[in-house]
From TrEMBL:
InterPro entries: Brnchd-chn_aa_trnsp_AzlD. Keywords: Membrane, Transmembrane, Transmembrane helix. It comes from the Bacteria. The chain crosses the membrane at residues 43-63, 75-102. This is AzlD domain-containing protein. It holds the Pfam family AzlD. It comes from Pendulispora rubella.
Length: 111
């Protein structure tokens, strides 16, 4: 057995243990913890925070450096998407407006 198979086995075992622990601990949480209004309020912020953590680096970092050009197409498109999100609170409209703005700005600025 070479190192590649050991690595694959170790990663598979770690993934299985992680998923099993989430299932096991998640099913054993008491209803009082999940029924707590503070916990429910905090859990509502998890999806937007995870989405922001995924999207923000793609917007503000280019080639490993922070984007400082205010006319960067991604920054302008993100601004349009932010305004749309605040105005409509619609995920579909926000994504659509952001993508349309990105393509429009790239077309207009040649970026």
């Amino acid at each position: 057995m070479n190192g590649t198979w050991l690595t694959l086995f170790a990663v598979g075992a770690a993934t299985f243990a992680y998923r099993l622990s989430c299932i096991e601990f998640g099913s054993n949480l008491e209803a009082s913890v999940l029924g707590n209004p503070r916990v429910k309020r905090l859990l509502r912020f998890v999806p937007p925070a995870a989405f922001a953590a995924l999207v923000a680096p793609a917007i503000v970092v280019r080639d490993g450096a922070l984007v400082t050009n205010p006319l960067d197409p991604r920054l302008l498109a993100a601004l349009v998407a932010l305004v749309c999100a605040l105005a409509t609170r619609s995920v579909l409209l926000t994504l659509t407006s952001g993508m349309l703005a990105l393509h429009a700005v790239r077309f207009l600025l040649g970026g």
